Structures are given as structure tokens and as C-alpha cells.
Amino acid sequence: MTLLAVERIKLFSTRSPWWCMLLALGLTVGLTALISANWTGPLPVIGAVFTHTFGLYVIMVMAALAVTTEYRFGTIRSTFQAVPDRISPMIAKAVVVMLLAGLVGEAAAFGSWGLSWLLADDTSQLALTSANDWRHVAGVGLVYAAGALLALGVGALVRQTAGAVSIILVFALVLESVVGFIPNIGDDIQKWMPFTVVSKFIFGDPDPSAIPDGAGPPAIGELSPWGSLAYFAGIAVVVYVISLVVVKRRDA
């Protein structure tokens, strides 16, 4: 519990987490407001959380900063001197950052969903009446938490803020889209890209009666929605475990 308290204090003692949380909420809820206000016909539940990825990328930047900032200012050395095994403080940091990311994700998702009720002309399809509906909204927090763990692993491996943020954003926003243009094998590779796969957890298997003809997300990947989340979380865990091994062996 002491390590958790220390990591919480360290995280909130800088301004960057506060700005990242506000930006994640503002982007997600603000863009949802624009979509809801201009949507014609019944707005489906997935329409209320369509912009969750913008907040996800900001939260992943926040998670990377949580570790790279310590390397930048050298505070990580004091932490490792106080706790020589190094693994315990890194795990405590992961717990704190993942909990915060999950809470921000839930706030962004339910905030977007609630605002959609206020702004959409037709809310007949917005009620959370099925397990899929709840997954579309409440599942955003799980994706944010897994994404934060992945970003922490990248940050611990790279140790530099610019490098870690660049890797996260370029991979998610550019590489996953560009890989689909590789002749012959591009589409097969793209189906297994982590951010592409985890999209199915939020958008997959919606109620077809709630989506106008020709609208809604395309079929994504080969896995079920929950299998897609497990795949993304598994990649995050692998990257983070590798980062723990490297942190343990490398000089701070």
C-alpha cells in the first residue's frame, strides 16, 4: 500500500496527468457532441462511443509520461535505491496508472453516452438494454487500462518521452493503416494489429436493428469481442513484462 501511495503522489505531483485527463475527456465528449448533434435518424449506442480512440491515445501518452518523466529528472534512481528489487515500484506504478486510465475511460464513455441523450434527435436506440450495449460503453474503461499498461511498457523500454510518444502514436495512427497497403499480405497482417483488433471489443457484434443500412463499423478481425480484448491485453502484458526484465538488468 505504501508503494501505491507513493506512485499516486508522484503521478499527481506534475501537471501532465491533469492536462492529459482533461484533454482525453474533452476530445472524446466534445467530438461525440458534434456527432450526436448532426446524426440523422436513431443514434445507436456505438455512435455514442465512436470517438473513444482519441481519448485512448491521450491516456497512453499520459501513461508513457508517468515513467519517462522519472527517467528524465532522475527520480527513478531514488525510487530504485529505496526499493532495490525495482519490480515492486514498477508494478505499483502500473496499478495506479491503469486504475486512473480505467476511470477516465469510464467517465469519457458514460459522459459521451449521456451527452448523446441530450443532443441526439432520436434516442430510441441509445438505451443500454443488452450485454452488447453495456460492453460498447462500459468496455471503454477496460481498453484504456490495457492501453495504459502497453504505454507504460513502451515508456520503460525507451525511457525518453519523445521516443515513447512517437512510437505509440505512429504505430497506432500510421503503421496500422499503412500495413494494409502491403501487396498480398497487407490485409492479413492488418487484421491482427493490436489497435485494429481491440476495436472489435467496443464496436463488434452491435444490434443490427439499431444501425441504418450501410452504416456502422465494418467487420473487424477474426476474434470475438472478448477475445479481441484478451488479445490486446495479452500484448500489453508481454510488452510490460519485457520492460520489467530490461528495467531489472539495465542501469537507471
UniProtKB/TrEMBL annotation:
Membrane spanning stretches: 18-39, 45-69, 90-116, 136-158, 165-185, 229-247
Keywords attached to this entry: Membrane, Transmembrane, Transmembrane helix
Ranges in coiled-coil conformation: none
Keyword Cell membrane tagged: no
UniProt name for this protein: ABC-2 type transport system permease protein
Species assigned in the record: Saccharothrix yanglingensis
